[in-house]
Amino acid sequence: MHYYQHNIGDYRKDTSHLTLLEHGIYRQLLDSYYLDELPLCNDLAKLMRSHSVRSADEQQALQNVLTDFFELTESGYIHKRCDEIIAQYHGKSAKARASANARWGNKHKGSKRKQSEGNANALQTQSEGNANHKPITKNHKPSVGNAKIELPAWLPEKNWQEWLEYRRSSKKPMSDLAKTKFLNQLQAFVSQGYDPIKLLDTAIASSWTTVYAREDAKKTASTGANLMKGVTYART
Fold this sequence. Notes:
By secondary structure, this protein is mainly alpha-helical. The protein folds into two domains: 1-137, no CATH class; 149-235, no CATH class. The chain has ten helices and four strands. It has a two-stranded antiparallel sheet with strand order 1-2. The chain has a two-stranded antiparallel sheet with strand order 3-4. Strand 1 (71-73) and strand 2 (76-78) form a beta hairpin. Helix 8 (176-191) crosses helix 10. The longest helix has 25 residues, at 80-104. The two termini are 41 Å apart.
């Protein structure tokens, strides 16, 4: 696909928590998804290289966007809404060509036949313009398994359950894979000296779907190191 409709209202509503850097990366990923009509590469090194993601801030922004808007599968990072739009695109294209052929029949040949095919493609493009593009999945409910998550010592069960309940009430529950990746991300922040409880509380109060490294949530470097001493995150 070389064209897709961008609904500004829906996009702003679903991405108000993103930084300008994350906005740029998200739009780049969407363009690649629609242009290639394939899931994004699940090899992060290749994905970063293909989108010129170099600095640590850019790498973190990429990870945040993938966590918020994409689902990791064996085929790569998928985006359900993008897949729906691509399927509609090909379905309408096929219907438009069939309609044009039935209308003109076999009596128009040569240049007129080519013209009818051009009309069919134009009809498809016009029809596609009426489809709403919503970059964030609205009706997709990720599967949430029952696997028990063993929490690291620095994260109280109470705060973890508050976070999961907040995500469920926001209609964005976390799959088991998302929980694992989120805890790994949170663990990285803790090792840098951030208070995980403050990060979670700030994210909930700000209606974010993930946590961000904020200076008001940072402890001393030694505190973060002590929290991480002897702690290994595991999933059972």
